[in-house]
Task: inverse folding
């Protein structure tokens, strides 16, 4: 076997029968051979597996079930759960976790309802969620993106974007609808006839065919691991169209301020409509040209080389310019649109992944300077996709839809963008920090996994002429 693996000269090969009589040496050779494997590749695989575990089974639980009481805005019991450093520091009861020891970690005791602890307060985690947290802690509680190998300067507070939950604090008072794909409790690839609203206003959206007057929209499909970097999503086909009830309209009328946020990954398809309806509030299809915008419609305009528009109907739009959406097909993105009272294009901002989007070399969006007068339809409320015959289809995965009846100011908007970006693994506004750099103790930085790789000297041998590979040094040294 060894003669087949190593290019040995005849004198060396003659020793093979002797090795068969020396099991200890053979075992040592096997150990040396295994230890000579490239350690970095193994470490990289393990690191990737731990990162995947965190992103799929830990981060969603921390964001959806813990951040409301133990995040950047509220720290009940003095405890924050939005960074590894905060978990290690803990709260009034002590450190929340002990890396490598899930059973001894207060976090696991709390979610297991042990030692008099019961968290979260709004209902017990599932067995799978608890097992995921325990497995994460058992593997060292790795928090991707925070490891540092040397001292880093503390980031200034002004440069740090703290994630803000979409329904926290005053945001909850202005949140009009919140569709979250991860709120659905369905089997993978199950039909989504109704997508419940999480804003507490009861504005669930449902397939319009047979439900709404003139409705032709089919249900979507719930996908557990979607094109949104593996997160849950509602998958739209060209036939999918969802809408809320016209009897429960959002509190947005006339020249009202608003903010729309969408997390999605859309694809082009055959028979692409001229104007694809991503999300709409109001009435973009008035019987005749009303002479002013009557809607707040996020659309993709094919005749304008797939521009991303904030449309009011009848061409009374604010647009990011020809071809502005083309680079974002087949990519997971976060669209944020804010609108303050006033002329359409002058008071609207469109941004993708935190970066403003507008025509090249322009100071603002192109399009209409008319003032909107948002009016609601009598046949349906807010809608997505091909809800009615005049709506243009979309195809792709939608993970999150949020609508506020206020124009979120920069700190609030950036905070919600950061929260969604963290949840979906999107890098929001790459020019800024999303969180303070992690700080580590000297003992943590001394861990063997963080030490630079070294090349130790090979054992000296008496038969240098026999050496063909570095492994031969170890074998010949043992035989000597």
Result:
């Amino acid at each position: 076997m060894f003669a087949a693996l190593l290019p040995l000269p005849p004198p060396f090969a003659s020793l093979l029968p002797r090795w068969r009589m020396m099991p200890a040496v053979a075992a040592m050779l096997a150990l040396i051979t295994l230890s000579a494997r490239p350690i970095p590749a193994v470490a990289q695989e393990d690191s990737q597996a731990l990162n995947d575990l965190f992103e799929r089974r830990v981060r969603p639980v921390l964001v959806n079930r813990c951040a409301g009481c133990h995040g950047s805005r509220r720290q009940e019991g003095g405890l924050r759960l939005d960074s590894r450093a905060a978990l290690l520091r803990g709260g009034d009861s002590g450190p929340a976790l002990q890396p490598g020891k899930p059973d001894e970690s207060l976090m696991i005791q709390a979610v297991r309802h042990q030692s008099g602890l019961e968290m979260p307060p709004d209902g017990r985690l599932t067995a799978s969620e608890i097992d995921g947290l325990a497995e994460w802690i058992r593997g060292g509680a790795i928090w991707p993106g925070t490891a540092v190998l040397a001292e880093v300067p503390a980031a200034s507070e002004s440069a740090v974007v703290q994630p803000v939950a979409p329904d926290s604090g005053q945001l909850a008072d202005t949140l009009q609808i919140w569709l979250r794909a991860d709120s659905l409790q369905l089997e993978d690839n199950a039909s989504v006839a109704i997508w419940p609203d999480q804003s507490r206003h009861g504005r669930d959206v449902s397939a319009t065919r047979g439900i709404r007057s003139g409705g032709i929209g089919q249900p979507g499909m719930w996908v557990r691991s979607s094109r949104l970097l593996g997160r849950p999503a509602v998958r739209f086909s060209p036939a999918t169209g969802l809408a809320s009830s016209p009897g429960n309209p959002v509190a947005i009328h006339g020249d009202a301020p608003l903010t729309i946020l969408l997390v999605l990954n859309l694809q082009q398809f055959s028979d692409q409509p001229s104007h694809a309806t991503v999300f709409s509030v109001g009435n973009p299809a008035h019987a005749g040209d009303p002479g002013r915008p009557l809607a707040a419609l996020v659309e993709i305009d094919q005749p304008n080389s797939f521009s991303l528009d904030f449309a009011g109907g009848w061409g009374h739009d604010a647009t990011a310019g020809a071809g502005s959406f083309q680079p974002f097909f087949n990519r997971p993105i976060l669209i944020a649109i804010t609108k303050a009272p006033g002329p359409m294009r002058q008071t609207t901002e469109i941004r993708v992944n935190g970066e403003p989007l507008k025509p090249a070399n322009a100071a603002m969006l192109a399009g209409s300077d008319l003032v909107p007068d948002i009016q609601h339809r009598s046949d349906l409320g807010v809608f997505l996709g091909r809800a009615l015959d005049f709506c243009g289809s979309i195809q792709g995965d939608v993970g999150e839809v949020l609508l506020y009846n206020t124009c979120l100011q920069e700190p609030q908007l950036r905070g919600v963008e950061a929260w969604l970006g963290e949840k979906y693994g999107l890098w929001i506004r790459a020019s800024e920090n999303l969180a303070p750099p992690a700080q580590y103790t000297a003992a943590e930085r001394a861990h063997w996994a963080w030490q630079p790789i070294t090349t130790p000297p090979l054992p000296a041998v008496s038969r240098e002429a026999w050496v063909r590979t570095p492994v031969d040094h170890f074998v010949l040294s043992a035989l000597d």
Notes: Confidence is low (pLDDT under 50) at residues 1-44, 147-158.
